Amino acid sequence: MQENVSELARRMRQIELENEAAQHGLLGLASGTARHDFIAARDRHIHAIHQQMIELVGPDQAIKMVAETLWSAADWEMS
Questions:
Q1: 3-state SS track over 9-67
Q2: Closest alpha carbon to 51 in 38, 65, 40, 31
Q3: 22 to each of 15, 36, 37, 54, how far by Cα in Å?
Q4: Interval 28-35 mean pLDDT
Q5: Cα maximum dimension of the chain
Q6: CA 50, chain centre distance (Å)
Q7: Statement: residue 43 has pLDDT above 60
Q8: 56, 49 in Cβ contact below 8 A?
Q9: 3-state secondary structure of 42
Q10: pTM for the complete prediction?
C-alpha cells in the first residue's frame, strides 16, 4: 500500500512538471510548429502517466487525481 502511495505521488509530480513545461512552451518565445510539437509531447507524457496511474488506482480515481494535479482550486471556482 505504501509503495502505491509513493508511486502515485511520484507520478503526480511528473504530471505537474510536464504541465509546467507545457505552460512555459505556450508562453515562451517559441512559435508555430515547434511550440505545438513541444506542447503535444507534454500532453503525450501526461497521458502515459495517466495510463500508469489507472493500473494503480483504477480509471475513475486516476482521472480525478490527474485533474486535481493539473487544475488548482481557483481554476475549479472559475468554471
A1: HHHHHHHHHHHHHHHHHHHCCCCHHHHHHHHHHHHHHHHHHHHHHHHHHCHHHHHHHHH
A2: 65
A3: 10, 10, 10, 22
A4: 64
A5: 45
A6: 8
A7: yes
A8: no
A9: helix
A10: 0.72
By the 8 A CB rule, do 39 and 25 touch?
yes
Where in the chain are the domains?
2-78
What's the grid cell of residue 51? 495510463
Cβ atoms < 10 Å from Cβ of 11: 21
| Residues 41/51, Cβ–Cβ less than 8 Å | no
**Average pLDDT value over all residues in the chain:** 83
Looking at residue 42, its amino acid is R
**Measured distance CA(70)–CA(63) in Å, rounded:** 10
